[in-house]
Structures are given as C-alpha cells and as structure tokens.
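quick one before i forget lol
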Amino acid sequence: MSAFFLRKIVAGLLYPPTLCLLLAGIGLLLVACGKLTRLGMILVASGVIGLFLLSIPALQQPVIRAFDSDPLSAELLETPTAIVVLGSGVYSWDSSTPPSGKLTAISLARAMEGIRLAKQYPDLPLIFTGGTIGKRPASSAAMAELAIELGIPPDRITTFNSPTSTAEEAKRTAQEIPAGPILLVSSALHLPRSASLFASNGFTPIQAPTDFLVDDSAPDLLDFIPSAHAWSNWQRLFHELYGRAWARLTGN
C-alpha cells in the first residue's frame, strides 16, 4: 500500500464525524452483545451528541477563522514572476463534459482565482499543478482547459500533471521555474502550509487564497440549524491539520 493511500485511510478514520460514528458503532456492538451495556450506551450517546454538535455551523466558525487565510492585498509588495495554482479533486469525464463540470468545487474555485489573476496580470505565465491517483485525469489538465475556454492564451499556460501532494507540487515547480516571488493560489485553509512548502523550495510565495470557509456575517438562526455541510467543513479543517502534522513529522 502506497504512503498516499495510507495517509488517506488514517486521516479518514480520524476526522471528527467519522470518530463520532465509530464511537456510536462500538457502543451499539457492546449493547448488542450484552456486555458492558452501560459503557455501550455512553458511547452511543457520545457519538450521536458529537455528530449533532459538529453539524451546527455557528459552532465551527470561530475555530475555522483561526486557520483560514486573509484575502490577497490589493497592492503587492513584490513583483511576482508567475501564477501557480494548486490542484485538488477532479471528476472522470468524457469529451462532452464542459470544463467547469470536470472540476470539484474546490478545484473550480482555485482555477477561477488563477484565471482572474491571469487577466489582472497579463504578462505572467499561468501554471496549474496537480496529478491524480488511478485512472482519473489530472486536475491540472482540466483547469488548463477551463482557462483556455475563458480566454487565456494556451502559450501562457503550463501544467504539471504528476504531483499528487503539495510537497511534490512545490518540488516540481522548483524544477521548472526560477526561484523568486510567485502568486500562489489555493484554498484559504490550505494556503499557509502550501506557502511554507514553496518557501522551503526557494520561492517567495505571495498568498492568493480562495475557497474561503469563514463566514464573517453576523450569526443568525439558520447558523444554528444542523447542516451536513458543516460536517464537510470539519473534515476539511482536520484534513489540513493532519497535513500540517504530517509535514512536521516528515520534514515536508
């Protein structure tokens, strides 16, 4: 089993919603077996209550706010030499699928921000990175296709289709372009770790976050209504926290 799949499996089991389900499942088994029934009921109740609390959007916003990046400043302190857009998820497709339908919501947000910056800075090359595991096509190819359809000249675009992690994206980019200031585009939650990895490869990243999870509007009644989307946000937050922990352990 590759390290990539091992990381995905371990992280998947440690996401808070999954942990709550595991607790509830273990509790149900104990109750069904008639052994340690009291402990089983406590585990079931803990898992259900945990899932309920994790589904309340208003409870997660203060936590996510501590990790999300701030928007890109209107005035850049350094002159970038390239725009680098990091890849994410992609769907399998056939030739009739439009470019926007080939990308997950995260990848689409990153691609659109890269395209926006490419139009704002028309002299900069636009680099899309991101490979894939298995038979799915690379996200970088789908993002490049979208950029071309939205008016970016193909000769401005470069794709790196082999990297399957942020560390690999940083190393591959360093192999292809000179070190220096770059506009680095990724999700707001993912960008601090990404910037650190690119900095360790000689770049001076100018963080250009997108795909924000923080909602700065005042909480209202709807924010206290359970939502499955809140579970997804917790998963994304802990995915990033585990990524940071893995980076510290491995030095990447």
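fyi The two ends are 20 Å apart (CA to CA).
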